[in-house]
Each structure stands twice: as C-alpha cells, then as structure tokens.
Amino acid sequence: MKLVTYLEHGMEKVGALTADETAVLPLPYADMNALIGTPVQQLSEKAAKADAVPLSAVQLCAPIPRPRQDVICLGINYKAHAEEAERYNADAFTKERPIPIYFSKRVTEAVGPDGFIESHPGLVQRLDYEAELALIIGKTARDVAPEEAGDYIFGYTVLNDVSARLLQTTHKQWYFGKSLDGFTPIGPCITTADEIAFPPKLAISASVNGELRQSSTTDLLITGIADIIAELSSGMTLLPGTIIATGTPSGVGMGFDPPKFLYPGDIVECTIEKIGTLRNTVR
Predict the structure, then answer these.
(1) Cα 127 to Cα 140: distance, rounded to the nearest angstrom
(2) Exposure winner among 56, 105, 141, 175, fewest CB in 10 A?
(3) Residue 84 has pLDDT above 90, yes or no
(4) What's the fold here for domain 71-282?
(5) Which residue in 281, 283, 275, 4 sits closest to 115, CA to CA?
(6) Confidence of residue 278 (pLDDT cuts 50, 70, 90)
(7) Measured in Å, how far apart are the chain's first and last C-alpha atoms?
(8) Contact residues for 146 (Cβ-Cβ < 8 A; gap 6+)
(9) How crowded is residue 22: how many other Cβ atoms within 10 Å of its Cβ?
(10) What is the DSSP string of 22-78?
(11) β pairing state of 186-192 and 11-17
(12) Where in the chain is the domain with CATH 3.90.850.10?
C-alpha cells in the first residue's frame, strides 16, 4: 500500500493510492502521524470503502509534512560515498569504520513532491543533494533486538538530504548545514513495509536536469537497518512516526571533480524502486 498526504480544496488529508496510482482513496485520519501504526489490513478495508479522487485533482504533500521530532540521519553509510566524501574534505568526512555517524535534521515543514529546494542566496554556497531511503517507525521501539527490527518499521519513503556543504564543513558539525528551511524533501509516498522484503534491496538513484548522478542499491549500507534500529533503541525510545534516513550512495555533487553543486532552476529527481520518484526544483 502506498500512503500519501495531499491537499484538496485547501484542506490537508491522507489517503492510499489506487493500484494504478491515478487516484487517491481518502482515509479517516487527522494526519499521517495519526495513521501510522494502524495495521495495513485495517487501512485496506477503510480504503476499499472510500470514493476515489483523481490524483490530477489534488496536490501531493510530503507524506509526513511536520515530523513529530527531528529526522535521524546516518552519515557516510555507503562505502563509495565515504571514499568520495573523504576526497572532498578529509578533515570533515573521515570516519572510523564501522562506527556509524548519527546526526539529526531539523524539519519545520518537509518539502513535498514538486516542491522547492530553497537555495538561500547570501547564506548558502555549495548546495548539494543526497538521495536516501528513509524508514518510518511504526510502534514504540526500545531495546529492540536486531532480528526483531523489521517488525518495528511501518514503511519506507524517499528523502533528499539537501546539504549546504560549506556550512557543514565550516561548523565542524552537520546540524546547521543540513537543517535550513526547504532542505528536506520527502515523498512521494510511504510504501508500507509489507510491500518490501526485509532488509530492503532496492535500486536507488538521483539525477539533476536529467543527468544520472547517483545509482546504487540499498543493500550496500555499511550499517544495516536492523543494526541502526537496535543501536538507537538501546539508549533512547523511538516513537511511532520517527523518520530515519539511512544514508546516501556515491554520486553527490561534492564527489565530482570539479564538484557539481546545485543552482536555482536545477531539477533534482530522487528515485527508489517500489516507492517512486521525488522531484524538486531549486529556487
């Protein structure tokens, strides 16, 4: 099942996409945070009773427009990306493998499909993209064993971890350079976990103005999803709706020689198999 948040006549609603993805079936929940954790069978039964609304008649938003907490992110979590990041700035990006790098990303409001990535003229230089598989926790998680981690995942979505590289490296930490307004596009939907074998082995890619930049698969994570959930939940409670972005593969702008950063007018498309394409324009 693919779940979406959308605007219809100015009202924010949640629903499920039809099988052909041409319409949405409204669901009776206040928002996606209220829906998360509901059994998929129950959602399917409610969707079956709904009247379909053509997708052309609504505007898709980020599936979780206002996350309950900061997004938890994994840094340098694909081997090839670790190598390109170290080439770009060894002081900022060298890591002691296999220790994972966690950081958080402040999201006042996530950017939806076809929304805008803000370039922040005068503040941001070296604007970059990062296509990532993000998972959504479906039930309260504390002290989760790795072999049980899959049971705590509600679904998956696409997240573009937009980054201001100069801010990121200058501050010697990543929070500010990752958290500016318009820096967290998410979407186009949440694909429920029952649709994707665990651990996910999905094609992931990103293109800029039609040029393929990133191309990999999500089974190449240095720290896998089961270990991520087990480690994080060993010391803190992960609430339903928690978003965890698992890291990006090689091919980000800073990885090229010379670098290929983003500029106003650029169109970034992040695609993950079985989820869809998140398309955004820099302004």
Answers:
(1) 35
(2) 56
(3) no
(4) Fumarylacetoacetate hydrolase; domain 2 (3.90.850)
(5) 281
(6) very high
(7) 33
(8) 226, 227, 229, 230
(9) 11
(10) SEEEEES-SSHHHHTTS-HHHHHHHHHTSPPEEGGGSEE--SSSS-SSPEEEEES-B
(11) unpaired
(12) 71-282
